[in-house]
Design brief:
By secondary structure, the chain is an alpha/beta fold. The chain is built from 21 helices and 10 strands.
Length: 601
């Protein structure tokens, strides 16, 4: 995955809850301090949000999930305490590489507020941001409690899936809607039907069944609400809490020990805690990418800005913007690392071309690894930006080192060849045996030169240039040496040395290319793994949504709701097609574009 898996990144904790969202002058706004805290969590988040009527114990419930009594403000008076959305980040009790983010929302139908628009905005955010949504209800599931979920039926009007909506727009809601938990407080009914015990889940499903006919407008509304819940929250469950204690003690509920509470209440509460703590439902965006604290902040800011501006939050465009922000940040982070490392190298004492090549290959791979850890998808645009910038920086440093090395090598060669140059100028070698003396001096000078240049490519280039330039003079000495046979005079002695130097240069070039090919191969493997991880996320998300919709289709068939079963089947087929498209490998097409980029360097 593209996120930090280091458990140490999860050590920071919030000692106390913070207000995340508040309403000012009729518009939602965000608390900068809360955003700063959220950004510090670099691990995936399980985002659990509680919604429901005011003064029904939502804050107490969230404190139970946090495992801390002194968290969200709890009060038993008629005045609602929670305003806006409050948050509390806790270390996940079961998975050290994740964070449990608890969101406590202000209550529905608060007479002090009386603002349905604010309610809709708060609960739109709750759905957009959550991975698990708890609807906190009282007494029983009835028509009133279902009607209180009217914000669910309004989501198709309050949330836009695509920037260019179509008739199938709402069919994708199931891909990002959170899992739904209906929690009934102070439940006093017996969980049985026709004398047989049923579970809270069966009780919920029974109350979500549709009426057989829709002969009037009331029946249509009755069924429409249930359809919306079933279609958008196909993954759902129910918990039924008995009254925890005598009403006179309720104001002390937060301080009471389990032994002072109703046994059934404690048991059901523990079932809920276990369900949330063992749940796999981490927050993801459409496409399956995991949401970290930083990504959560970006999404929240975009959604709140849209709602505050009176614009429908568009899931597709927000995810696209998030990916652009994250991928560009990934490029910037990778480039900062790369630039810092190359600067360290350039300032070191032993800077050579061969070491630069090895160092560049190693650090560019590490930079790509940093990029892949943070990026949200394999964006060829950002990969191209990263590769081109690193290559450009490398070539710039390479040119500087080449120039500096050439100057140093030319100076050194001039020093070791100075006596030979003088002897050639003075015609010292133009005598019997002169060629053997010249060859001996030349071998010694070249050996000394190579020790200094350490077989650098640029060193070979400088030596080759010198030998080719001086070849006429050296050949003259060979031809004038009377001790040499005619055969020895005809064959240039320098040809062998030039051939050896050129061969060494070719071997160095081959080694450099081998390094480059190895580096490119490893980077391509990194990209492929990231591509496969991203595809797997999308496939898993679609498979889960498809299976949920298939299960709902079967339920409709069992209930004899053929039209609804057909509608569910169409949604199932729609998701299945997307699933099949996601499983098709488009990696080779993607990788060919990247290979052209790497080869063009």
């Amino acid at each position: 995955m593209s996120v930090n898996r280091d458990p140490d990144a999860n050590k920071q904790k919030m000692e106390n809850p913070l207000q995340l969202v508040f309403n000012k002058d009729g518009k939602l706004q965000l608390n900068p301090e809360a955003l700063r805290v959220l950004q510090s969590f670099e691990v995936p988040m399980v985002v659990v949000t509680v919604v429901g009527a005011a003064r029904t114990g939502k804050s107490y419930l969230m404190n139970c999930l946090a495992g801390d009594k002194n968290g969200f403000s709890v009060d038993s008076t008629v005045q609602a305490h929670t305003k806006g959305i409050w948050m509390w980040c806790r270390s996940h009790p079961q998975r050290p590489n994740e964070v449990l983010l608890l969101l406590d929302t202000e209550g529905l139908r608060d007479p002090e507020k009386g603002d349905s628009h604010n309610d809709n905005s708060i609960y739109t955010l709750a759905i957009l941001l959550s991975s698990v949504l708890i609807y906190n209800d009282k007494n029983q599931i009835d028509q009133q409690s279902l009607q209180d979920l009217h914000f669910v039926t309004e989501q198709s009007k309050l949330i836009q899936m695509k920037s260019q909506p179509n008739d199938c727009d709402s069919w994708d809601f199931v891909r990002f809607f959170p899992e739904f938990v209906w929690l009934i407080r102070d439940f006093t009914l017996e969980l049985e039907i026709d004398g047989k015990p049923i579970t809270p889940n069966e009780y919920l499903e029974r109350n979500l069944q549709l009426k057989d006919s829709e002969i009037n407008e009331q029946d249509k509304k009755y069924n429409e609400l249930r359809r919306c819940i079933r279609d958008n929250f196909p993954s759902r469950c129910c918990f039924a809490f008995r009254t925890p204690t005598l009403w006179k003690k309720l104001k002390q509920l937060q301080e009471l020990e389990d032994k002072d509470l109703d046994e059934d209440f404690v048991t059901e509460r523990q079932k809920l805690i276990n369900y949330i703590h063992t749940h796999k439902k981490v927050k993801r965006v459409v496409g399956g990418q995991l949401v970290t604290g930083r990504r959560f902040v970006e999404l929240t800011k975009m959604y709140v800005d849209m709602i505050a501006d009176g614009v429908l939050p568009c899931v597709e465009s927000c995810v696209a913007k998030l990916m652009e922000v994250e991928n560009q940040a990934a490029v910037d982070e990778a480039l900062k690392f790369f630039d810092d490392e190359m600067k360290k190298f350039s300032e070191s004492d032993d800077v050579t071309m061969s070491k630069l090549t090895e160092y560049y290959h190693m650090k560019s791979k590490e930079a790509f690894n940093i990029f892949h850890k943070r990026c949200m998808n394999n964006s060829d645009k950002h990969i191209e930006q990263l590769e081109e910038t690193m290559s450009s920086n490398y070539k710039s440093l390479e040119a500087k080192i080449k120039e500096k090395s050439r100057e140093e090598f030319e100076t050194h060669l001039k020093n070791v060849m100075s006596s030979i140059k003088q002897n050639l100028t003075s015609e010292h070698y133009l005598r019997p045996g002169g060629f053997q003396e010249l060859k001996k001096d030349l071998d010694k000078a070249i050996k000394e030169y190579k020790e200094k240049t350490k077989n650098e490519i640029e060193g070979c280039a400088v030596l080759t240039h010198f030998l080719e330039k001086e070849k006429p003079h050296l050949d003259q000495v060979q031809k004038m040496d009377s001790r040499l046979t005619e055969e020895q005079k005809r064959v240039s002695a320098l040809e062998e040395e030039l051939s050896r130097v050129k061969h060494e240069r070719e071997k160095m070039e081959e080694r450099r290319k081998a390094f480059e090919e190895c580096r490119d191969k490893e980077i391509m493997e990194q990209i492929k793994k990231r591509f496969d991880d991203g595809k797997m996320c999308s496939v898993e998300e679609l498979k889960e949504a498809m299976e949920h919709m298939g299960s709902e289709m079967k339920k409709y068939k069992v209930e004899g709701r053929n039209e609804d079963a057909e509608r569910a089947r169409q949604r199932y087929e729609y998701l299945k097609k997307k699933y099949e498209e996601a499983t098709e490998s488009s990696f080779m097409k993607f990788i060919r574009r990247l290979r052209r980029l790497f080869q063009s360097r």
